[in-house]
Design a protein that fits this description.
single chain, 216 residues, alpha+beta, Beta-Lactamase, 2 domains, six-stranded antiparallel beta sheet, two-stranded antiparallel sheet
Length: 216
């Protein structure tokens, strides 16, 4: 019994390590091949890991590390926020817009860090912990764009701009985090007004690069 339990645990840990090293995730068949086991064994391992949020499946059926792994690492969201805050603060102050870090959690986008500008009379209030569908705004669509336009597992830097929201009048821009195996996310800003100024997109790309470097 002990040997069997240890073997199962060992395989589960190997699954997590394999997924952590695969930016684009792995299929069940690929995992079975790398572990030298049949697909039934992999399905059982994934079912258990998925229950605990340690793995997830994307829309294409590929398996990726879930944010449950990050929660185990001493509730790493505060650490991610701390690492991202300098770049977010600079972005918010320079643009006079609310800056945010958004990560994928399951099938949703989760806002994990927000910095509001200190000098503006009015700005958009954005709440840490806000959860929304990935295709709902620029933050999520930037992540989806990185998945779609990845080349060799690594997308090209870019940004997504959102039109003014009919209810709030807010618009924004976001750029994906790149080169972070097991983590999908974006850095963006939301602001009041009409169209997003041309300088905002490139500046958001720069901030996303800074945050990715801080998280490595």
């Amino acid at each position: 019994m002990t040997a069997e339990t240890s073997q199962t645990l060992d395989r589960g840990v190997k699954v997590l390590k394999l997924l952590a090293d695969a930016e684009r995730g792995l299929t069940v068949t690929e995992l079975a091949s790398k572990l030298a086991v049949n697909r039934t064994v992999v399905y059982r391992l994934l079912a258990t890991l998925e229950q605990h949020g340690l793995v997830r499946r994307d829309l294409g059926g590929r398996v990726r590390v879930g944010l449950g792994v990050l929660r185990l690492a001493h509730r790493v969201h505060p650490l991610l926020r701390e690492a991202a805050l300098p770049a977010l603060r600079d972005l918010a102050e320079e643009l006079g817009a609310t800056a945010h870090l958004t990560l994928v959690d399951g099938s949703d986008a989760l806002v994990v860090a927000v910095v509001e500008p200190s000098w503006t009379d009015f700005h958009v209030a954005y709440r840490t912990g806000l959860r929304h569908p990935l295709d709902d705004n620029a933050a999520g669509r930037a992540i989806l764009g990185a998945r779609t336009h990845g080349s060799g597992g690594r997308a090209q830097p870019g940004f997504v701009v959102s039109s003014p929201d009919e209810r709030s009048g807010a618009c924004g821009a976001a750029s994906p985090l790149l080169g972070l195996p097991g983590i999908e996310g974006s850095v963006g800003v939301v602001m009041l007004g009409g169209m997003v100024p041309e300088r905002v997109g490139p500046r958001v790309v720069e901030a996303a690069t800074e945050v990715a470097e801080a998280l490595r």
